[in-house]
Amino acid sequence: MKRRLQKKYLILILAYSVILLLIPYMMDYRSKATQAKHGLQTQRCPDLDNAMALWNNGDKPTNGTEMFGDMINRTHTKTHIYVHATWRTGSSFLGELFNQHPDVFYLYEPMWNMWQTLYPGDAGSLQGAVRDMMNSLYRCDFSVLKLYAGTNNISTSYIFGWKTNKVICSEPLCNAYKRDEIGLVKGEVCEKCRPRDITDLERECKKYPVVVIKDVRVLDLGVLVPLIRDPALRLQVIQLFRDPRAVHNSRMKSKLALVKESIQVLRSKKQTDKYKRLLMPGNRGNRAENYVASAMELICDNWLNDMLLAVSAPHWVQRNYMQGPEAQERRATEHHRGDRGGQEQGKLRLGGEEPFPKSKRKFVQEGPDQRHHMHMCITMADWPDLATRESPDIQVPSYSKH
After folding, report:
1. Alpha-helical regions (H) of 230-283
2. Can you give the three-state secondary structure of 289-308, one letter per residue?
């Protein structure tokens, strides 16, 4: 008798449980049917909305068609430029030309913070992180800077070189300067600007048709190939070269400022006995000088690899790379007619300096077997002279208002 009662109770409990499960299911089904009938949309979970807002940088949610259309528009209207250089090649001078252009959003060595945070990591292992940071910055996503800041609350004053950045120190972020007025930004004036949240800088970045990054921490041009191939970026690469002897001389004059990064460059080749010896120079008194001088050999190796890559690259790479080594040497050695009615014909004048000596012209014109790593290319002294000629390869930014 007791067993029968237990079975009945068990059946009742199971039936009651099934009913409790079916009731909310049926109610939910009816609710969805009603919404589908009247074209109503289900309300999102608030937490999900917040998460989506983070992905969209706080913008309003858009459907797939709008997002695709926005990507196409940005592809056709926005251009991205990377000034590919190494230390002491005059890249800051060229970068300042872009910084002064009212239609250019310019970033000065944004990867500096990464290298300082990850020191003493070797330069080679940091190349992937450098490329990923560039990819984010070109898309006006500056949240990547938080990874190396140690805090999520970063402002415009965290950006390396912000005291001379025309965008940060001019309207609407600051009233110190007007964007369309050409002139150097004074650090003491820009220091008075109130630090702005990084999201304000992102909004400004999205307004500019051209985004330019100048940095010296991409060692190998091949690292940029995935970005060059991305049609949404339209990345153009301007690579600067300078006579390695002049680069070495300049590096020696500022060796104390270049020691840490020279060590990082040397550590990228630490697996070989040759560069292990370079990392442990015997003379402690000249250790800084040895580090800086030894890194120059690796820099020249990278230059040579970049030139070989550019020469053998397919057309789609050469179209986005300015300019080929042969064109550079031809322009650097071609005869220049001066302003004295042809009296200076047969001599190369470098932007107002004395005529280029024959010994240097011979050095430039020698074959690659003679030059080895001492590969002569356009120096920054050539820029004022070459930029004024009729050239499809080199153009000086126009400062006229649009």
Report:
1. 244-253, 255-267, 273-279
2. HHHHHHHHHHHHHHHHHHHH
Domain spans of the chain, in order of start: 69-242+313-322
- Give 142-190 pLDDT, tens digit per residue: 999 988 887 778 899 888 889 999 999 999 999 999 988 888 899 999 9
For residue 226, the tally of other CB atoms under 10 A from its CB is 12
Q: Are 239 and 221 in contact (CB under 8 A)?
A: yes
Q: Are the CB atoms for 81 and 238 separated by under 8 Å?
A: yes
End-to-end alpha carbon distance in the chain:
97
Q: Number of helices (H) and strands (E), helices first, in the chain? A: 18, 5
Residues 305 and 303: their CA atoms lie apart, in Å, by 5
Res 281: pLDDT? 52
Q: What are the tens digits of pLDDT across the range 220-246? A: 888 998 998 898 888 999 999 889 899
Name the CA dihedral angle for 375, 93, 398, 331, rounded to a multiple of 10 degrees: -20
Q: Which pLDDT belongs to residue 28?
A: 67
Polymer length of the chain: 402
Instruction: Indicate the pairing of strand 235-239 with strand 321-322.
Output: parallel
Task: Determine if the peptide bond prior to 323 is cis (ω within 30°).
Answer: yes
Burial of 290 (0-12, 13-18, 19+ CB in 10 A): buried
Q: Give pLDDT, residue 67.
A: 40
Find the mean pLDDT for residues 79-93.
92
Q: Which stretches does DSSP call E strand in 72-202?
A: 79-84, 104-108
Q: E-assigned strands of 58-123?
A: 79-84, 104-108
Contacts of 64 (CB under 8 A, 6+ apart): none
Model pLDDT, residue 261: 86
Sign of CA dihedral 385, 388, 391, 395: positive
Cα–Cα separations (whole angstroms), residue 60 to 56, 66, 159, 220, 327? 7, 11, 27, 39, 48
Percent of the residues in the chain that have a pLDDT greater than 70, as a whole number: 61
Tens digit of pLDDT for each residue in 29-49?
666 666 555 555 444 444 334
d(CA 303, CA 219): 8
Residue 80 has phi, psi (to 5 degrees) of: -120, 135
273 contacts 257 by C-beta, under 8 angstroms: no
